[in-house]
Design a protein that fits this description.
This protein is α+β, with helices and mostly antiparallel strands and 635 residues long. It has helices at 7-18, 20-44, 47-51, 55-97, 102-142, 155-182, 185-190, 203-222, 229-261, 263-266, 269-311, 313-320, 336-351, 392-399, 462-473, 494-510, 520-573, 578-617, 623-634; strands spanning 325-330, 357-369, 384-391, 409-413, 422-425, 430-438, 453-459, 482-489, 516-519. A hairpin with a 4-residue loop joins strand 5 and strand 6 (430-438).
Length: 635
Amino acid sequence: SGLKINFFPQLALLNLRKNSRVYLPYILASIGTIMMFYILCSMAFNDGLGSMYGGGQMTIILRLGIIVVGLFAVIFLLYTNSFLIKRRKKEIGLYNILGLGKRHLGKMMFFETLYVALFSIVIGLFLGMLLSKLMLALLLKMVSFPVPLGFSVSLNGILLTSILFGAIYLLALISNLVQVGRAKPVELMSGSQYGEREPKTKWLLALIGVFTLGGGYYIAQTVEALVKVIGMFFVAAILVIIGTYCLFTAGSIAVLKVMKKSKSFYYRTKNFTSVSGMLYRMKKNAVGLANICILSTMVLVMISSTVSLYIGIDDTLETVHPREVMAIRYGENSSDIEGMNRAMDTALSRAGVEERGRLSYRYFDLILTDEGVKDQRYYQAEKYYVYYFLPLSDFNVLEGESLSLREGEVIVCGGGYGAGDTFEIPDIGFSAKVRDARPSFSLHHREDDLADMSLHIVVSDFEKAFADIQAASSTLGSKPYISSIVGADIGRDKETEQLVAYELRAALDEIGLSANITLRSSERFEFVTLYGGLLFLGIFLGTLFSMATAMIIYYKQVSEGFEDKERFTIMQKVGMGLGEVKETIRRQILIVFFLPLAASVVHIAFAFKIITRMLNLLLISNVRLFALCTAATVL
């Protein structure tokens, strides 16, 4: 009680200086996390962004980012804090023996935490404010928005950041106080030095690991229904995370024990020291390694998928919007399409534009699920089938061919039919002979097969087929209708496209037709907004998780380096050469570093299918591109 008022604040400062080797990385990581959290907040609550066209999507993506980074910050900072307190137990025990009571130690630790918290939050917010403008500019560049000038500080961001990180530091302090409060001085003094028994094999945990990992992998391989993909992806991810922890903790020890049992393998100098060293290390290492593995997997998944989305924008547009200016009209009348083509000619001549390519066809579609129900809930079914019926004349023009069909014959484009097969849709009593089977044609690309079965059926008598199917399908709930599509490529700038669209609308009005007119440039803008935002978030979180991985590895090396040093000194005393020691260290470190990475590559390999299905939902169909992006990210 006779201690000076400013004794504890000074002692706390001294301690932080003395322990800079362990505290500096922790403070740097905290600053980095705080900075990133503030930047995301300042963007998500930026009124300017929300009011822009397409900004609503961006805001949702960024707010999702805030939740992810917030959760991550809690787990990560509390985890690294546990490393810190472990390293410092001896020193705290010494203070205890020298006469500082638990209450005094509590005061000292309170000031230490206060300094770290104030320093990290102030510097983190300051850097966040400096960089948020730059990051916003980068984001707007990615989503091709105009970049507004001017420097702004987000009060919401400052408030949210201070509250969240203040709470995290408070939790860290409480957990440290509880640990020190419970421990006896002798336990503190031995800190991380207490003797270790050989870890037991926990078979139950290993089995749980095998089952959860297997379950996660199984879901990733078998999920089919598009609407369930995202939900099932999260279920699979959680199972894989549980499995990873269990297998790293119990599985690794089980494997090492088996190695130890094999005498011919174990009693060789290299293997003996590596395996016995690893056996003890794995007990402490397992959680850290599992963390590294999971963080690496997250980085790989996020960066590879968002990059492939962003790079694949033009491919996606080609599929969704085959011509630059397109008009679509829903109606039964067969002369509609001629009128639409005339209107397009008129529009192009009035705008004074030469066209490069015309697309003009009619179709009607029929959607059936496994249960045979045709209505708007079709996409919730496990499997659904979409049949697009096209007239032969339009197909010939599209493909530049001159095929003919006899009564009762069809051409099938897409999924597993061969010439000579019978094509039938039993629900509506449609049956025909397959004259020709094509895996793909200009409207049906093999790889963008988003539905499990989407087929284009070419018929010779379009009107008759439509009347038959309409009559038969009226019992199924809703009627199909004919759509007429006309599109033209003009290869000019956005303004010209808009002019043509304006003239086209006028020309259609003159002949009394109404149609829905879309431009590829505006569709492109929508895609760029969405995918650019996702890419930004992917890179952002990827950087954050990579930083965390580096931190965990650093702490593992620092905290284990001190202990290993003593172990290897003993080994040298009992006659092991320096060369052998170095070789053992090298092998252990390679295993420790590459095990999590190898595991995350296996995770990615199993997740590949479900991720491509998720990308399909976002209309990306280029599997090769995604595979290349993944390989590059792994490297």
